[in-house]
Amino acid sequence: MFTHLDDPAPPTAAPEMADRAVAEGRRRLRRRQATLGGVTAALLLVVGVVGGLTMARGDDRDGVVVASRGDGEGRLEGSDLGSTDSLRMLSMFGARGSRPGVVRAAVDAAEYQALWDAVSGDTQPPPVDFPREVVVSITLRDGGCGSRLARFDNTGGVLTPVFEVDPLPRTCQLMEPGASTYVVALDRRSVRPPYALPWSEKYEYAERRPEVRVP
Amino acid sequence: MLVKRSRDEEFREAYAELFSHAYRTAFRISGDRGASQDLAQEALTRAYVHWARLGDRRVGWVVTTTSRLAIDRWRREQRRAGAAPSSAAIASDTATADRLDLMRLLARLPRRQREVAVLRYLEDWPERDVAEALGCSVGSVKRHAARALAAMRVQLELPSLATEAL
Q: Which residues of A touch B160 (CB under 8 A)?
């Protein structure tokens, strides 16, 4: 019924237009992934405290990661977990059979394959150096609105991750299912003991509390 | 790297078709060739960013995103220009008047009704395709379409709308 509004001579898409879209899209993805890396690191800590993330102590080469346990509060020392240097974004998917809040972790190839199968569909998993890295996937309710870790609030030695949503409402995609799964490889050396983060029910990550053992 | 190559290949293959859909939607709303190309390119760039999650809904996503971008652009222009003059006062032809009414209508509709209206009426998609694109039931599409159509009948005076059955 609106065909009378059509352009009688619409332009055709030139290959360089696709190139420009890819280049700009890559730039936006890099910016997006850089911020999401911080979210992943923070969530790994939350899982560690709540679920008892246990990793083996070793030297710097092998990774020294031991989660403190206790009442759910403590201190974060060592690496800057707001940094993305120790994180490698493997991929991001629309949430596929995973409710927001589901966290998965893999510490060897077999677990990684199972994790990847659960979140990715038919694609092949990128390589991971398991002696140096562990893999974590988190499904977040984000509505495509660019959830990101803005900072850690430090009150009395208790660090609380603070998440923010892109302030531009128009970046939120109305048709999206509202949740995304982020898969990252985390350098085992990036988390050092002792650490803990306060658990808060305001986060939606409590549905799974996996225990992860790193040999 | 494998994922990124696959994304690029798929995106480049689909670009021309998606651009065509996006441009048509943008032009039907804006009537401006340059702006429509820019809007289509922006929608396609956003599609690249969200490519992995779009799946089979790419066309619908690009069309509704383009319509939203076009409406946002129109709103910005309205704010810059102050109060919008009536369509009768500035429209020099039927198409221009229809576009003004169309933009006003789409801008007023609730989100879901607008998405349905864009796909169902602006793009003339069958209800089943709209439902698949939006991830909802055909019944839901019918409800939203009926409400949007009722608003369009009141606010627009397009002859084809006046005769279409709910």
A: 1
CA distance B37 to chain A (A): 8
Considering only CB atoms, which chain B residues are within 8 Å of A2?
A: 28, 98, 102, 121-122, 124
B79 and B99 in a common domain = no
Q: What digits encode the pLDDT tens for the residues B98-150?
A: 777 777 778 788 888 888 888 888 888 889 988 888 888 889 899 988 888 88
ipTM above 0.90 for this complex: no
pLDDT digits (tens, 9 = 90+) for A87-128: 566 776 665 555 555 566 677 888 888 888 877 766 788 888
For residue A30, what are its two tokens? 């890099």
Characterize the bridge pairing of strands A213-214 and A54-55: parallel
CA separation for the pair A82, A31 (Å, rounded)? 14
Element (H, E) at B61: helix B58-81
Contact residues on chain A for B69, CB-CB shorter than 8 A: 170
Q: Which residues of B touch A170 (CB under 8 A)?
A: 68-69, 72
d(CA A103, CA B40): 36
Alpha carbon B8 to chain centroid distance? 25
B111 shares its domain with B71: no
Please report, for the domain that includes residue B129, its CATH number.
Answer: 1.10.10.10
pLDDT per residue as tens digits for the range A39-95: 555 555 444 433 333 322 222 222 222 222 222 222 223 233 333 444 566 776 665
Q: Where are the domains of chain A?
A: 14-214
Q: Note whether B1 and B79 are same-domain residues.
A: yes
Q: Which domain holds residue B3?
A: 1-83
**Are A82 and A187 spatial neighbours (Cβ–Cβ below 8 Å)?**
no
What percent of chain A is predicted at pLDDT more than 70?
Answer: 30
- Kindly state whether residues B52 and B110 are assigned to the same domain: no
In angstroms, what separates the C-alpha of B15 from chain A's closest C-alpha? Answer: 6
Looking at the structure of chain B, the number of domains it has is 2
Nearest to B28 among A2, A94, A126 (CB): A2
